[in-house]
Design brief:
seven-stranded antiparallel β-sheet; 7 strands; Beta-Lactamase; 4 helices; 34% helix; actin-binding; alpha+beta
Length: 126
């Protein structure tokens, strides 16, 4: 299965994710939803930001030029929100699974889908 199929079939097709991407920890973009504008700089900055609460709280989370308010996170997870939209990012051994959602999707719905794929990737050393 290609990375694009993971984005399309395991994230967006669930209807619990509006747009998604899978990116390398080096900032490379492996697959993304149509219409999701990402820069390698944004992705690389996010990859370096896990477990840096003070940096994320001060600077927010930038995806596609949009700044999201940092809500919470740890060494494998980052959560953010802006108005009626949000972002949920899971770090695996080699990648980040990044998902955006908008109302009426609930943050918890997005989280379950993203974390399930993230857990599967971790179990498979990806």
């Amino acid at each position: 299965m290609s990375w694009q199929q993971y984005v399309d079939q395991h994230l967006v097709a669930t209807q619990c994710v509006t747009m998604a991407a899978i990116c390398g920890l080096d900032g490379s973009i492996w697959a993304k939803s149509n219409g999701l504008e990402l820069s390698q700089d944004e992705v690389a900055t996010l990859a370096r930001s896990f477990s840096k609460d003070e940096v994320l709280a001060a600077n927010g989370i930038r995806i596609g030029g949009t700044k999201y308010i940092y809500l919470s996170g740890d060494d494998k997870l980052i959560r953010g929100k802006k108005d009626r939209q949000g972002v949920h990012i899971v770090k695996t051994k080699t990648a980040m699974v990044m998902a955006l959602y908008a109302e009426p999707i609930l943050p918890e719905q997005c989280a379950v889908v993203v974390e399930k794929l993230g857990d599967w990737l971790i179990q498979n050393d990806l």
